[in-house]
């Protein structure tokens, strides 16, 4: 009976070394760090592009101020609507990790395409 009581007791670290070793035994999963890094890169890209989108539309693509404002706001609207579809896709079809991976790849390809189209030396047609 006394052995049952000892087995059910919680293990409490006795000194600071035991606390550190216990903390090292319970790390976050690797996927958490990849998701945080991915989100950081995505937000950096999004706000960087959003900051110059209206200027790019007006100065490079020669849209009027009204047209570039409309395009900017439609872009912002889609930024807030598309996560709903991504959430449905993650919950019903792909799962959260595959959805994050696949849609991040699509996002990266879109940014690469936008960057290449803005480079004058490549002679790509502007959007």
TrEMBL record:
The keyword Transmembrane helix applies. One of its GO terms (molecular function) is transmembrane transporter activity. PROSITE patterns: PTR2_1. The keyword Lipid metabolism does not apply. It comes from the Eukaryota. GO terms for cellular component: membrane. Keywords: Membrane, Peptide transport, Protein transport, Transmembrane, Transmembrane helix, Transport. GO terms for biological process: oligopeptide transport. This is Peptide transporter.
